[in-house]
Amino acid sequence: DLYEDPDELAKALRFFHHRGNDVLLFHIFDPLELDMPLEGVATLEDIETGEQIPFTSEHSREAYLKELNRHMTVLKKECRNVKIDYQVLRTDQPLDAALFRYLSARSRRI
User: Fold this and answer.
1) Helices (H), 19-94
2) Segment holding 88, helix H or strand E
3) How far apart are CA 3 and CA 27, in angstroms?
């Protein structure tokens, strides 16, 4: 899910890139993660740790989306710095269409 320190992720990605690999980073999101359409008060559960996090739309949505966008911007920048393609994919869009768009854009750059 790439919710790690961007500097550590960039270090790992550079390792693969510098070994001569063509590295592509597909960051896959559920639409709920990108849009956060929840309303009111809820308890969110981390499916990996079981941690429960209180959520109120009026206080949490803006902070969450700001932090998510910051994180994605840093990842994109770090990838660009080491010539690694960074692409966001959504689980509500067909994978074949997303890959086709990416590969078409990439072939125009080469």
Assistant:
1) 31-35, 57-81
2) strand 85-90
3) 10
